[in-house]
Design brief:
By secondary structure, this protein is an alpha+beta fold. Helices cover 21% and strands 28% of the residues. A hairpin with a 2-residue loop joins strand 3 and strand 4.
Length: 155
Amino acid sequence: MPQVALTELVANAWDAGASRVDIQIPEKVGDNLTVQDDGHGMTAAQFSKRWMTLRYDRLKHQGEDVEFPAGRSAHQRKAYGRNGVGRHGLLCFGDEYQVETWRDGALSTFLVGTESGPSPFVLRNKETGSRNGSGTRLIVRVERHLPDPEEILTY
């Protein structure tokens, strides 16, 4: 269900201490859907552990409180995420998606896909670069389940 997938991704941004989440919904199949936040982002090592570990236990490894980006003061808030399933919500729309995440001046870009084997999620490509600030941007080419903006607004 597209609405559930997008809700999960917004919850992930909340858990990353984001104050803003931008969602670009395509008008037709074949175009990109993008979700970008200004949360704390991840290092390549954090991505590997937090994103690519099946059934990652957020409470055990990060606690129940949200981590905010460096320099952002905000009221303490509790994280929604628990079992690490929602982050792969983009697979509702296509068989692979891109993650760009930046933190502490380092940008990491990953291509995540599906495959049969010991893990249903595989890392198909990784690139590094630099970028100021912090945040995460997710991009998927919508091949199925084109989201309806009106439906999402009521969800």
